[in-house]
Structure to design on (826 residues):
């Protein structure tokens, strides 16, 4: 069996995939397998019992949003009774930042990979402060979610259609030359996104007041494009999945309790172990003792060759996640060691436009004892609070070792 | 006499100056000394006879715009008769990119330095293609100028007022962390400008169609913010001007024929010599033989510590001006050698957030034989054509030597 050949095939698909934002739809209408009593969440499968505070908070908030419960106890009862089911976003071609909780009536971005025909989905970004994805769920959170759903989403949907689709891969290529790494720093990408949509928003919106509010909401949110970017990376990673004999990691995701990976040549099997606490910078008044373990599907960015892997493109990110600009250079250099190849569309100016390290090779991770680097936000460990900082984290080595053992068994090596 | 003390005073003023975009007004109404029969132009003083092709083209276009002539011959006659007068933008607290021709009824941005109370002005940016500032003047150019004047400027004026003013210095600080150097690369800055204005444009504009057109015009123009940035730099440089005993260069400007400088401690005297042809990359079908000598007031950016001096912040600019990312690093490193100090607000992530080299010291330029580096666009040498490329250029050494001689004479050194 030729693993290198399989990995070449998988990474070529990942790199050649395109990712066009073609529309917005209700999760229930557009996400495959979505149903009335289902909530999607970040990371590998999880139960209420094993869920962390922010995941429980986000589930509660989503069920309040759906009008099914009014508090956390009722949410717990509904989920534990089995009346509401939980499944990973990743089982439905979807991804969500932090808790990633997506309920049937929420609007989601629709990304189409025009090269391989697959689609991917992600919910809308709420911005900063008290937000559902970090486990906050009070009236402030609900009000914003309703505004996004009732006011913003219908306009964005029409604006995207009016634009003829937005090439998120091209946007990312450009943003990496503007100091973004595409995961924790999406400052340039978010205003490139605003730039692409703004004329269409003005055209389709029914009132100038609404236009103004939506332009402000997108422009003031330096993570506005994170969700379409994640769905774009999901479309790329999915294109690389299912290649017989490939050791390329095609999923990395955390649910706030476990960190899980899946591998191109190992089908739908998850390899999981306890998620770690990120190291980074905390907002005033918070510290390590407040931090929840690593959470979110946003590691799909590193899986697709950006985020922590492209940190050298974003030296200014260290003001947010701690460290020196040289650490950003070192992070990308280290990731070349565990990656199978280099990206063709995502390049790093400081490295003379070398492609970003792309396609995490299970074999190299285990051989070198080097796990992927991940940039991430940090959630408070209790439900209802929200973000407390941002930093860096790595997955547990055990999951790569287990996956490699499973690979050896499956392929009789 | 303590030159270092004088230079400290001058550069502190330059660095501490603020630059708030407070409004837009007709040149005739807001620029000090502007009058009906006056055209402002880039660089040191020039006559029609000594003007280059793009300068003559821009003068012609501005006079057509004013309804005073219908072709180049008429423009020549009007200017040579003395009926229309030419004076440098720099004599009127103003700056203009490339030919920089500003006529009485054109709208200009108004920048206020709230620390020292001085104001600075610059015209509106036309975008790419056939544009007045590169010496094109046909109906396409006129149509765009009229649209800018009649449709865009009134809305931008109200939007700026509605915003309460836009801090261009803060915008620049941010843009330097997003891959801009602020002169030839204003990609991030221009969409930060769009982001700041967009909600206000939607609010004040009378039709959604106009809103959409203006958002597209700003968003599609990666130089949209260049003119406010130049006026901001002018406000900073002017704050540093007129410090007795200072060898800091406070003006560098080219009219397409001559390169001129002025020095803080030497009053209004220009030191000039023939401008050089930039070296760079040409658009398809053009080459060195088409290039006009260096032209424009945009060297005010380098004068204020950005542009070529901040190139290390913008490694991706080499795809536009030629060279390797390492050349961008080297350019900034070299400029530290001829600069008096480092900026406090403008920093370079790749240099561990070291301030940009700021305050060109006449003494160091002459002593080291190192002239400032300038990023620039390249105009076709004939009137009526437009931009043919972009590249790098340096001022002639002679003007620094002459200025130093004049300094020694004035101060009896």
């Amino acid at each position: 069996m030729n693993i290198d050949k399989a990995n070449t095939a998988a990474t070529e698909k990942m790199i050649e995939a395109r990712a066009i934002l073609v529309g917005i739809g209700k999760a229930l209408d557009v996400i495959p397998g979505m149903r009335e009593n289902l909530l999607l969440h970040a990371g590998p499968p999880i139960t209420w019992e094993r869920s962390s505070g922010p995941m429980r908070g986000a589930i509660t908030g989503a069920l309040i949003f759906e009008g099914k419960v009014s508090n956390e106890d009722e949410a717990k009862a509904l989920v534990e009774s089995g009346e509401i089911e939980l499944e990973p976003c990743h089982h439905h071609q979807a991804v969500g930042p932090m808790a990633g909780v997506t309920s049937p009536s929420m609007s989601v971005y629709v990304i189409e990979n025009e090269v391989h025909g697959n689609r991917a989905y992600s919910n809308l970004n709420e911005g900063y402060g008290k937000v559902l994805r970090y486990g906050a769920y009070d009236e402030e959170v609900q009000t914003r979610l309703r505004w996004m759903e009732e006011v913003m989403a219908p306009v964005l949907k029409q604006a995207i259609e009016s634009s003829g689709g937005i090439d998120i891969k091209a946007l990312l290529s450009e943003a990496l030359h503007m100091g973004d790494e595409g995961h924790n720093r999406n400052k340039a990408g978010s205003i490139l996104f605003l730039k692409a949509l703004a004329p269409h928003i003005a055209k389709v919106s029914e009132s100038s007041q609404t236009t103004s509010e939506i332009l402000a909401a997108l422009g003031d949110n330096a993570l506005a494009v994170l969700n379409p970017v994640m769905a774009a990376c999901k479309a790329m990673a999915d294109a690389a999945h299912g290649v017989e004999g490939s050791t390329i990691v095609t999923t990395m995701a955390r649910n706030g309790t476990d960190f899980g990976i899946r591998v191109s040549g190992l089908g739908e099997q998850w390899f999981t172990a306890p998620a770690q606490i990120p190291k980074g910078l905390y907002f005033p008044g918070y510290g390590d003792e407040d931090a929840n373990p690593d959470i979110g599907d946003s590691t799909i960015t590193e899986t697709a060759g950006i985020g922590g892997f492209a940190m050298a493109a974003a030296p200014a990110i260290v003001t947010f996640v701690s460290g020196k600009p040289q650490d950003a250079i070192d992070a990308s250099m280290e990731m070349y060691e565990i990656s199978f190849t280099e990206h063709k569309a995502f390049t790093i100016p400081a490295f003379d436009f070398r492609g970003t390290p792309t396609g995490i090779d299970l074999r190299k991770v285990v051989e070198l004892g080097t796990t992927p680097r991940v940039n991430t936000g940090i959630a408070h460990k209790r439900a209802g609070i929200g973000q407390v900082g941002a930093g860096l984290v790595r997955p547990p080595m055990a999951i790569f070792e287990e996956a490699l053992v499973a690979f050896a068994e499956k392929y009789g090596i």
